[in-house]
Structure formats: C-alpha cells, structure tokens
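Final report, Chapter 2: Outcomes

The project's central promise was a pipeline that accepts a single protein chain and returns its three-dimensional structure in a standardized token representation, suitable for archiving and comparison. That pipeline is now operational. To close this chapter, we reproduce one record exactly as it appears in the project archive, with the input sequence first and the structure output second.
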Amino acid sequence: MRTALLSRALLVIVELCVLAGCSNTAAQQDACTALAQSTCDALQRCNPDLFQRTYPDGPTCLSRQQLACSYQFQPNSNTTTQNFTACAMALPGASCNQLLVNQALVLTNLPECRPVAGTQDNGSVCFADTQCKSTYCDKGVFNGLCGACAQRALLNEDCDATACDYGLICEQRNLAPNRCVAAATAGLGQSCDQTARCQGGLVCVGQKCATTLKVGDACQQGQGNDACDRTAGLLCDQASQKCVATQYVKPGGACGGAVQNQRTTCTASSKCMSDAVCLGPATDGQSTVYNCLPPAIPANGVCVMPDPLVCH
C-alpha cells in the first residue's frame, strides 16, 4: 500500500516537473525553480511522512526537481512561464485537504496547476498532458513513459478507459461501467468513500469520517484502517492500542526484523533489503534493484531521467 502510494505520488511530481520543464532562458529557469520549490514545500507541509520516505532533505528535493529543467518546453505545447509561475504562487495558499487525495499530492486539483491545452489530436504520441488538445496524455497506452492523447470523460461518462475531467472522480462500480462523478465533502460522522472526501482534520475510517489521531491517542488497530495520522508517519500499535510514530531510518541503517520492538521506515527512497538494512536509492543509470530517486523512473531495469525525445 505504502509502495503504491509512493509510486502514485512520485508520478504526479514527475509530471509536474515536466510541466515546469525547462529552458535555456533565465525567465524559464526561474519559473521552473519556483514551481520545483513550491512542489517540495507542499509535499513537506502536507505529507511529511511521504517527503521523508522520498527525499533526504529539502535541497535534494529541489535539486532533483530542477533536473527536469534540462528539457526544453515540449513540442506542440502552449505552456508559458506564466502558467507554472501561477501554479507556484497558488500552492502556498492551498490547504492540504485541497492537495491530498488518498495521501498523495495532486497539484492539478488547483485550477492554476492544470495543464494548458496543446496542439496534438487524440491518438497522437505524447510525452506530457500539455501537448494534447484534450490535456490528457494516456500513459497506459505504451510503456508508461510515452502515451497517446485521449479525451477526458465528462460528468456521468464512462471512465473505464480514460481519465475524468478535472474536479471529477472515476467511481468504481462492480457490475456497471465506471462513471465520472462530482466529488463531495463529508463532515465528522458522515459517510465517506471514494467519491465523498472527509473535511480537513478528518480521516475516513470504516466509511465514516473520524477525527485524525495524534501521537499517544487511543486507537483501534485494523487492516490499515485506523485514524492515526498517516501523513505524520503514525501507526496504531497493537500492544498499547495507541498511535505511535515510526522510526525513520537513513540509507545504511538497520530496519525491519533487524530492529526489535520498533516500527521502521526507510527514508530518501531507500528500501529495507532482506528485512535488515535500508539500501539505495539507485543513482541515475543504476539497476532498479533499488528504488529510483525522482524524477528518475525505472526503464529496462535501470533508473533513467524521463526523456521526451523518445516519444515521437
């Protein structure tokens, strides 16, 4: 679950770095740096647990996001420096409840951070949403790096094979086609599910919105279904039935079964190898036996920087 969350969250960050993509001019470099800094700040503010699991510190987050600026603006994109400067300026004022979906940072929840329509028609090969007239590059079509421009589904339309328009959620249905529905907000004690998100300070537990618990609060352990604040790295301890903090471990430190009576979490995109030691992350070009440090992604068994030139 935590690995899947990390992958989804990092994908969002990579895509936003592509939006801020790059440049040879000072104005473009400044705009890219501003968006990279705001993205790192938002992640650290809204999900410090995910931030620690991904990066060793703020400067590393910033420098890794700035690497995406080695690319030129994407061909067939109408994105300008003003577009991602506006996103960078909007992020500090956004609430974490606006930005987080299932604990993952989704910057495109803000209108200022949504891609500008590009010039490519549906079906054409793409690297980024900003290249498509539909603002959607379906990465599931090819290998996950390149995609094809596709139309977003609107309210009540089928979303089995595409993404919903911004502000809508693809409701998963067992016996009927998935449909795009409007997101709702639920208060304390109200019903919550994939389409009804709890208000800020609340968490969905057993399909009811409950108050998010802090360190030392009493909790009831379940299958990951307790109210301890996951964004702060809290888990419900079985013995004490209280929310406890995980022990963050740097690369090279002991983890898992090697550390008795402690809950450990590897930091900086490292992972617990052999249930004993946090190793990694992989450097660019290194084998993906270790996690890649974003914005690098796994490709053909090694960690590589996303390259828009391969998508044509």
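Archive annotation: The first strand starts at residue 100 and ends at 101.
This record, like all others produced under the grant, will remain available to the consortium after the project formally closes.
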